Amino acid sequence: MENNIKKILFVLYGDLSCNSAYHASSLANEMVKLGNECAIAIPANKESVWFQPEHLYEVYLFSDYEELMRWNPDVIHYWTPREVNRVFHEKIKSIAAKVIIHLEDNEINITMNSLGLSHEEVNDSSLEQLKNMPSALSHPVYYKEFIKKANGYTLLIDDLKEFIDQDKPSCVFWPAADNNIFYQNEHIDDEEKRKLGIKSNELTVVYNGNAHNSNYLEVRSLYVAIALLNREGIPVKIIRTGIDYVNFWGNDKSWYSEYEISLGFIERNRIPKIMSLSDIFIQPGRDDTFNKYRFPSKLPEFFSIGKPVILPKTNIGKYLVHKEEAYVLDVADAVSIVEAVKEIVNDKDFYRTLATGARKFYEKNLSWKKNAEKVLEFYNTL
Amino acid sequence: MIKIKTKIHTVIKILRRYGLRGFVFAIFNKLRGRTALYGVDDGLREAATVITYEEWIAKNEYNDAELQKQREVLFAYAPKISIVTPLYLTPQKFLVDLLESVCSQTYSNWELCLVDAKNESSIQEIVSSYSVRYNNIRYKKLECNLGISENTNQGLEMTTGAYVIFLDHDDTLSPFALYEVVKALNNKEIDVIYSDLDKITQDGEKRVEPFFKPQWSLEYFRSVMYVGHLLCVKKALLLEINGFDKTYDGVQDFELMLRLSEKTSQVYHIPKILYHWRISESSIAGNINAKSTIDDLQRKAVNAHLLRCQVGGTAVSVGYHRLRIIPNKKSYYPKVSVIVPNKTAPELISKCLQSIYGKTSYPNFEVIIGNSGTTGRKKISSRNVIEVECSKHCNYSEIKNLCAKNSSGEYLVFLNNNTEIVTDNWLEEMLFYAERNDAGAVGALLVYPDMTVQHAGIALGMGGAAGHLMQGFPYEADGYYGSLKCVREVSAVSTACLMIKKRLFFDIDGFNQHYAACYHDVDLCCTLLSAGYKNIINPNAIIKHYESRAGSETYNMVDRYVFLDKFWQLVAQGDRYYNVNLDLQKGNYQIGEQHKKNTFCPIW
């Protein structure tokens, strides 16, 4: 098939420090390496490009739209149908480009949770909160109109097909980790652990990520599991990076604080080293409307390092072989996590099986280069 | 100066914790009138504040704009609702109030079927004046007064709707009553709907004494006519059971509901005030001793119902229109294993055992004591008890599970060692409910040594997790509309005295052994609820519980979060048997205001 697509414009709803930036940036970088011209347009803050480890693409602001029109991309790939993207599309829709919309989550759920609205309220466009909602969210009514304007879609997980125009083509790709900094690392730096105050007999679990409105109950599940393991004779420490935007601990942290080492927000390039200290990786949660439609960005990082991974049977968990590639739980709540951890740490061979299985899964399925090839091929089919 | 210092301190705290971006969001939200960084206690309903009924009405009922919006709603399923009102010596003002309340309904597909057993011209004139404007008002004169049941049945014959609501001639409906009923019908397959109600003064000017009811509770209903008004029934079902039975005039609606409960379990409760019951001397609304034959008729109705249901008990009146079902004598008494964990305060075990053997009238039971690290105690040799030795590291769940494995009874009763039996037929009373097919856990009324209530059922959501209802109430009090006096369904019961079928106990894997000290009973009960079983509190089984009023010193936060982690969805749905409009902080049935979740969180 002839490759007519050469110039690709990605449109992000936030600057290059936002959650989604890494995915768009990685894809753009790989496409450039494959001989294409790529650009990423962002609402503001061009300096945020330095948040990305590599940027082989050009960066434009939305206010540079006239320049973008002159550049005349072949594909405009909107990273989510969020309101700021939808409005920007109205400015540049005269460009004769294929329009792709990328979905990475249940957008309405995010809007609902962010604004504290019920299902009924979120569909009432006369509601005051929706009239003044932040443009970095998807408008529950307008986003559907925007979705229909696409020629095709890319999706982070196949369940997101529910939200697209069923008559139009879609392409699913799973995000990978940054191979420059995440790699298989069986070695655990005991000295580093000691510096953090972790004893040699203490199991370490590293969890990197924020606690926000959509996931705080899962984060709590993990902390409850840590507290329970300690209470039941398995000393464990949790090394935590990220910010708690939500209070998931109740009135008092004393029930877990002695087991936590909180590093707060740390630079991205430090994360792999911290994560390498983990004996096991745990993704709490269950198959619900939040998890079903997302691909937790830390999962590729977990698998890339090559340690046992415990996760629920949702999104990517549905595709993993239980007790070979990961420990897959129907519901990864506190008690289930505790039982799984006990089973893993009490059997060295089993531990080894899961560690090896995780890395093998990563090598086979998670690659930005392969994603770029796949998406380029998809563009050319439109 | 102090205020400025506090503000500076807050700013520094936010910056340290959330950085510049988080600080910006905090300001953003402050300007929008929201709390920037919220603390959502377990993500559930925040604790309510107690308010007056007037305040509750102002905050919770629809305003004019919302009522107008209701009129414009097009339901996918919009059945005709027939309202049946028998008239007899109806005061004119009452009739006008009734007609006004029906005609102002925001849902329009209704018909009003008036059946007049007295034929007063003044009444006919009033009806005619409304019929001119509303052609869905129908009127029928009866030759004579056939009694309330037959009069109502005559009204039923007039109906053409799919569902029927019964409206007494001196009462009124909320303007959104039919709207709420139809809204419910659009979401579920329902045969019977009932709602909350309040009372109106004689002049109809003031609304007082709301009754916020639980979700459908058959056991509670067998003891007290809590369903009352508003009652809406699928017409086909009413016809199937031949409507009202004149044998029970005076309690005809109570008896009707008993027969309906035998036909369907699709009974739905709307937790809104849809009906206003007028206070008058001649009605129970105004005088509980009105209709003096009520008790006898209710008793007969329940006994007939129990016979039809093949439930081996006999209803007796206990005053104030409350009933108690006395278990019949049995030909076979299954063995009951009474399990007493003896971990803390082992010095109390002797007193506990003395009361078990001294008081219990039940003829077939064994006592199993789970000793855990209780060294230095005297061996209990003079009683026919089985002692199971558990490791000193065992928690209560482990002790109880181990004892259960060593039991030979068909039923298990878990009893704290700091208890004393008060009523000698406690096991018969509890077994009567525990042996039902749909029974989960059955609990007893636990009282402090001063005979005030320590436990009368557990409501989910109290204190953000679960808590005891009616603590401190005198044990002989009626409670909230009979809630203390009557057997009723609850979300959970305390394991200080809890009975369960042994087979069922092991089907659900017993007590969750991850709890160190508390919540293992609530966990068990929630597991049973989730599996479709009913948990019941029987206040006729009374146990004295020597527990500190300050609460258990063994409260454990990790246990709390283990429970919430597993059951937060069940807790977030609200307690089925403790109305959403009641205060959850103290669990004493005062009116409370439940706050909605109000959150904002940055998504990057």
Structure description:
The complex is a heterodimer of chains A (about 375) and B (about 600). Chain A has 14 helices and 15 strands. Chain A is α/β, with parallel strands linked by helices and about 375 residues long. In chain A, strands 3-2-1-4-5-6-7 form a seven-stranded parallel sheet, covered by helices on one side. Chain A has a three-stranded parallel sheet with strand order 8-9-10. A three-stranded parallel sheet of chain A has the order 11-13-14. In chain A, α1 (about 20-35) packs across α14 (about 370-380). Chain A is globular and about 65 Å long. Chain A starts with 6 loop residues before the first strand and ends with a helix. Chain B is of the alpha/beta class and about 600 residues long. Helices cover about 30% and strands about 25% of the residues of chain B. Chain B has 17 helices and 25 strands. The longest helix of chain B has 30 residues, at about 1-30.
Quick summary:
The complex is a heterodimer of chains A (382) and B (604). With 382 residues, chain A is an alpha/beta fold.
- Helix content range of the residues of chain B, please? 25-40%
The fraction of residues in strands of chain A falls at 15-25%
> What is the share of helical residues of chain A?
25-40%
Average predicted confidence as pLDDT of chain A: 92
Counting copies of identical and different chains, the oligomeric state is: heterodimer
**Quick one: biggest sheet of chain B?**
10 strands, mixed
Largest interface here, residues on each chain?
A-B, 40 and 33 residues
How many helices of chain B? The count is 17
Strand order of the largest sheet of chain A: 3-2-1-4-5-6-7
Shape of chain A: globular
Strand content of chain B: 15-25%
Secondary structure tally: strands of chain A: 15
Low-confidence stretches of chain B: 32-48, 595-604
Radius of gyration of chain A, in Å, reads: 21 Å
> Based on helices, strands and strand pairing, what is the structural class of chain B?
alpha/beta
Beta strand count of chain B: 25
Count, helices of chain A: 14
Distance between the termini of chain A: 12 Å
Order of helices and strands of chain A: EHEEHEHEHHHHEEHEHEEHEEHEEEHHH
The whole-angstrom Rg of chain B is 27 Å
